[in-house]
Amino acid sequence: MEDASAVDLDWFWRGWFYTTDNCDVSVDDVKWFKVRKDQTTLENKTKTATKGDLAAKNDDKKPADFSEGPQYFSVIPTENRMYGEFANRLDDKSMISKMETKNFYEITLSNQGGLIMPVIIEWTFKDGSKEIERLPAEIWRLNETRVTKVFAKDKEVVNVVIDPLKETADISIENNVFPKVAQPDKFNEMKKKGK
């Protein structure tokens, strides 16, 4: 199979034939970022502080959904000394202007089952459209237990689902969704059926 496909499938053979691990990929966290649009004025009269800027933030509380809006970050032009001996240079202004309209999503995934598998992500956007993105198993090559990846999207995302079509035999679908959805307790379901 490797000779015919010209793809290294060691991750597949090791996981499926030499271990008793299972597939359980979990969405631990999703953060939403946007580029801050700085408007420079000579007297800085347009600068405003948002509520809670000066207060100490509680980092223990992770947002449960996208309702708090994006976190903003600034992009600064690259200094000439950073290019070294490179002949080509990036046009920083055009790159920054392209990024101003994008939404950046940082997803943290954990491999709770131990079996290395490709990651299939379904993005649901604010307008109702969906997009499926497939990441190869090599995403786990540096760390087999936890990975963080950033995606740039043109539209706002309202929902993220891992393995929406159940192609990877994930044993626990409750942890594949962000924002988290409360799952009914199986004990209470059985209890209701018994009444």
Describe this structure in words.
- There is one protein chain.
- By secondary structure, this protein is an alpha+beta fold.
- The chain has one domain (21-37, 63-194).
- 15% of the residues lie in helices and 27% in strands.
- It has helices at 2-5, 10-17, 92-99, 186-194; strands at 25-35, 71-73, 103-111, 119-125, 130-135, 146-153, 157-162, 177-178.
- A hairpin with a 4-residue loop joins β4 (119-125) and β5 (130-135).
- The termini are far apart.
Which key phrases capture this entry?
195 residues, alpha+beta, four-stranded mixed β-sheet, four-stranded antiparallel β-sheet, 4 helices, 27% strand, flat
Brief summary:
The chain is α+β, with helices and mostly antiparallel strands and 195 residues long.
> In percent, how helical is the residue content?
10-25%
How many whole angstroms does the radius of gyration measure?
A: 22 Å
**Terminal Cα span:** 54 Å
Read across the widest sheet, the strand sequence of neighbours is 2-1-3-6
Domains (count): 1
Q: Tell me about the largest β-sheet.
A: 4 strands, mixed
Cα shape = flat
Low-confidence stretches: 52-56
Judged by helices, strands and strand pairing, the structural class is alpha+beta
Number of contiguous helices: 4
- Work out the number of β strands: 8
